[in-house]
From TrEMBL:
Gene Ontology MF, one: metalloendopeptidase activity
Protein species of origin: Symbiobacterium thermophilum (strain DSM 24528 / JCM 14929 / IAM 14863 / T)
Protein keywords: Signal
Keyword flag Signal: yes
InterPro entries assigned: Cell_wall_metabolism_enzyme, Dup_hybrid_motif, M23ase_b-sheet_dom
Protein name per the record: Metalloendopeptidase-related protein
Residues in the signal sequence: 1-25
Domain (M23ase beta-sheet core) ranges: 87-181
UniProt superkingdom: Bacteria
Length: 192
């Protein structure tokens, strides 16, 4: 490997290893760290998911019916509130406050909570190692243990948690890790 590539690789490794400490140390006063909410969600999924349930066979229904603008995709980005570079573990879907947030597959509610950065949250287990997260909800329509059919409302879009405006934050977790929801959704008609 040429020396220039080794230097770039070493610099990237140092940044990856030190970045979380630098970001934590530099959080604005009173700001909630979304990474802590992600850890809490990971714990819920690990502890409450039914590993024996089969995976869904139907494609994922769009979680914000009638609203197809992805305002922030899955992946690393500059956080709009914290002004720090970090993993965005889901999609932000632009929608007005009060718009429906719907289950993308049949599922069982494994968590309903309020988190500092994610606001009001619903987590559904869909079987086969799949779970979904619906965040920044203004209100929740379901309770833990409820069975929710695909397309039924789990809550309504809001501005809870750390947000710059109303939207649905939607995550898909596979085998305990967040993955790009667009791997499972029909992308026809989406806009960025």
């Amino acid at each position: 490997m040429p020396l220039v590539h080794r230097r770039r690789w070493l610099l990237a490794l140092v940044m990856v290893l030190t970045f979380p400490v630098a970001v934590w140390a530099a959080l604005p006063a009173g700001a909630a760290d979304p990474a802590q909410d992600v850890e809490e969600i990971a714990r819920w999924i690990r502890e409450r998911q039914d590993g024996a349930a089969p995976a869904p066979l139907l494609p994922c229904a769009w979680p914000a019916p009638g609203h197809a603008e992805v305002t922030s995709p899955f992946g690393y980005r500059l956080h709009p509130v914290l002004k720090r570079f970090r993993l965005h573990a889901g999609l932000d879907i632009g929608a007005p406050e009060g718009a429906a947030a719907a289950a993308c597959w049949d599922g069982v509610v494994i968590a309903v909570a309020e988190l500092p950065a994610y606001g009001r949250v619903v987590v559904l287990d869909h079987g086969g190692g799949l779970a979904t997260v619906y965040a920044h909800l203004s209100a929740v329509r379901v309770s833990e243990g409820d069975r929710v059919p695909q397309g039924d409302e789990v809550g309504w879009v809001g501005v809870t948690g750390q947000v710059t405006g109303p939207h649905l934050h939607f995550e898909v977790w596979l085998d305990g890790r967040p993955v790009d929801p667009l791997r499972f959704a029909d992308m026809a008609g989406l806009s960025y």
